[in-house]
Specification:
α11 (303-317) links the parallel β10 (294-296) and β11 (323-325). α7 packs across α13 (338-352). The chain is 33% helix and 21% strand. It starts with 6 loop residues before the first strand and ends with a strand. The protein is of the alpha/beta class. The longest helix is centred in the first third of the chain and has 17 residues, at 77-93. It has an 11-stranded mixed β-sheet with strand order 5-4-6-8-1-9-16-15-10-11-13, sandwiched between helices. The chain contains 13 helices and 16 strands.
Length: 406
């Protein structure tokens, strides 16, 4: 039997409210600098009747460096974010050093071109359908980067980004590609999306301090905060990366995916599916729970998700058994892009040997028996780091990152 290829992370790119580069995102996390503010979701601004909630918009985003004015008109904002983050990742990797047919792209998105969809209802133009397609991001990234190998889009709600990274790992292992540009993108800051999540009770709509609206695992949490963004990783066969002298952030060693099969929006209350997903990812990586140095949690700040995830982590690692971080306290929740953003963070954590702190956690919910990192980064040894996403629909996805020298 042919040994499966090891996979290196050689490039990172991100565009989100918390940072337009991985280094800027990391600085926001370690400084607990929130990217969340009050945001007007419609054109009424602050006038009476406007939809104004805490959110994580990327207010200074400018795609002109990667897309022409004509291309910008043809692409939804979500796709624009994707192209910029993907091109940044490839530039960070020093290029794609394999033939076009040995390159691949895997994108994840939960909502696709929802801005274009809402703007075009009742008055669609000739580009309406192509702007809102979930796979539009995969097309644009492949076209910009000369990728003629496999092109795939995954849509599993808030697990989409992690699934995209994991499926890219499997693609390289199976020999379908040597380099994969993988990640997620989302631009869901529309009035209808905000109203829907707000009325469901899952999203924060009111708080005293908008910057601290996202409070994962805190006793006073009120739900998640909607955000936009994109993040991509360049995943490359480890032997090829080493042969060309590439800078390697981390290795991607394991991938798990399970389904709760319990409820359309609520997780299984005891976190059984989440625990099984983490166990599967660790087994795939050839390691065990006692070797894990850090868990990058899904940590949305909703009552049900936080409790279920905390139970899953505690069942697997023991009470307070592993340092936990919840980046959404700073970044907000970018839905289908969230897992990709957090994969970038996990890879950076491996490189730095640090677990970033969780912002705004002042009173840990006593039902969450977790060692949540707060106030300042914590030094972690070399070893596996888990990044988890647990989504509506009961979709669970986990990725394991490790030191390239491990």
């Amino acid at each position: 039997m042919t040994a499966r290829h090891a996979v290196a992370v050689t490039g990172l790119g991100v565009r989100c409210a918390a940072g337009a580069t991985p280094a800027a995102l990391w600085a926001s996390l370690v400084e607990c600098r929130s990217a969340i503010s009050l945001h007007a979701f419609d054109e009424k601004g602050a006038d009476e009747g406007a939809v104004v909630y805490p959110a994580g918009p990327m207010s200074d985003f400018d795609p002109s460096g990667q897309l022409t004015p004509k291309e910008v008109r043809r692409a939804d904002r979500s796709v624009q974010l994707a192209v910029c983050a993907a091109v940044d990742a490839v530039e960070d990797a020093g290029g794609l050093h394999v033939p076009a047919e040995r390159r691949a792209v895997v994108t994840g998105t939960g909502y696709g071109g929802v801005i274009s969809q809402e703007n075009g209802i009742g008055r669609p133009d000739v580009l309406y359908a192509s702007r809102l397609m979930h796979n539009a991001g995969a097309y644009w990234v492949s076209a910009k980067l000369g990728i003629t190998g496999p092109s795939l889009t995954v849509s599993t709600a808030c697990a989409s980004g992690t699934h995209a990274v994991g499926e890219a790992l499997q693609m390289i292992r199976a020999g379908g590609a040597d380099v994969v540009v993988a990640g997620g993108h989302e631009a869901p800051l529309t009035p209808t999306t905000a109203l829907a999540f707000g009325r469901s009770g899952a999203m924060v709509t009111e708080c005293e301090d908008p910057a601290a609206a996202s409070r994962p695992f805190d006793e006073g949490r009120r739900g998640f905060v909607l955000a936009e963004g994109a993040a991509f990783l360049v995943l490359e066969r480890l032997d090829l990366a080493r042969a060309r002298g590439a800078r390697i952030y981390a290795t991607l060693t394991g991938y798990g995916r399970t389904s709760d099969a319990y409820h359309l929006t609520a997780p299984h209350p005891d976190g059984a599916g989440a625990r099984a997903c983490m166990e599967q990812a660790l087994a795939d990586a050839g390691t065990t729970a006692d070797a894990v140095t850090h868990v990058n949690a899904h940590g949305t700040g909703t009552q049900l998700n936080d409790l279920a995830e905390a139970q899953a982590i505690t069942a697997l690692f023991g009470p307070g058994g592993v340092p936990v971080t919840a980046p959404k306290a700073v970044t907000g929740h970018a839905l289908g892009a969230a897992g990709a953003v957090e994969a970038v963070i996990a890879a950076w954590s491996v490189r730095e040997g640090l677990a970033p702190p969780t912002a705004h956690l002042t009173r840990l919910d006593p039902r969450c028996e977790l060692d949540v990192v707060t106030a300042e980064p914590r030094k972690i040894p070399d070893g596996p780091v888990i990044s988890s996403s647990f989504a509506f629909g009961g979709h669970n996805a986990c990725a394991v990152f490790d030191s390239p020298d491990g």
